[in-house]
Amino acid sequence: MRLVIARCSVDYDGRLAARLPESVRLIMIKADGCVAIHADGGAYKPLNWMNAPNRLSEEDGVWTVVNPAGEKLTITIHELISDTAHELGHDPGLDKDGVEAHLQELLAATPEVLEDGFLLVRREYPTDIGPVDLLCRDADGRVVAVEVKRRGEIAGVEQLTRYLQFLNQDPALAPVRGMLAAQVIRPQARALSADRGIECAEIDYDLLRGIEPNQAKLF
Fold it and tell me: Is residue 66 within 8 Å of 53, Cβ to Cβ?
């Protein structure tokens, strides 16, 4: 991971235009290519960011980050204060709680509850940026990446977005559908999912455990 502290201004050009005026900020460049700009406040959320995959170029104090969709993040470095890099090594990831892990297991065994005709290709499908919970094919043979959460929140949508961007680079898989499956999906996550073309499935965990295992609500 590379950590840069700099006085900088940031311009984003994509589905909308946004600008961060000149100020001292932390620029974080992760090994997977994700670039995030942080202020000294605002909890964990960056002021602006560009998810992997993308391309970063640095020329004469101007950094340009472009993703496959053509969105562009331009970081102008007015003063470089610190520039360090650290090798963090492999991270095993966050252990899922018991309910979430069991929910994934049950959906892997009965993927048709998500949609009629669903077939499981692989559970924990490996990618260079982490494993996809469930990789399925729908009744038309199209690949579907399913992210399983106990509670569907914005972070889960962002995570699935990164997987979709990565998977869609493989012509053997593309175009890949995305689906967020959870017991409860928050309205903000549902709105972001709709904006990104990701489907949402609310799953009744108790029913899935055997009362009526083929019941699911799709939105």
Answer: no
